[in-house]
Amino acid sequence: MTTASPGIRDFTSDQLARVARLFAHDADATSATGRTSAERQRHQLTKNPHLEVWLVTWPPGATTDWHDHGAAAGAVVVVRGELIDRLWKGGSEHWRELTDGDEIAIAPRTAHNLTNVGDEVAITIHAYSPGLAEMTPYAWENGQPVAIDTTS
């Protein structure tokens, strides 16, 4: 007999996207934070050791800078806005244009940079599994992202 708690502990990319879509279609969740700030704002919608969901508002030009989510896989759903996701995959940079309703999956330890390229505030929902225990920042050097050592 096992004493583990019931429920999903490991989410697939499809499951993360479904969770993000559920929150994206919840008017109460998508109005959970202000939209007038000059800086990107994050509002945590739910969290447990296996899943985190965030609402992010992006004023025009707001960016994450290059980073990865450590061991966490992610899914992003665009509620409103125009964003570009720059992704480092297979030794080269890939660009994804995102608008209302678009969704992306982000594999663990994958460097990317998400930026609002529109003229209006963008709103996105992010789901991560497991929770965000670590994030690695990167600098763009010689045509590629290079992890920044934050331990020194």
TrEMBL record:
It holds the Pfam family CDO_I. It comes from the Bacteria. InterPro entries: CDO_1, RmlC-like_jellyroll, RmlC_Cupin_sf. Belongs to the cysteine dioxygenase family. This is Cupin domain-containing protein. It comes from Flexivirga alba.
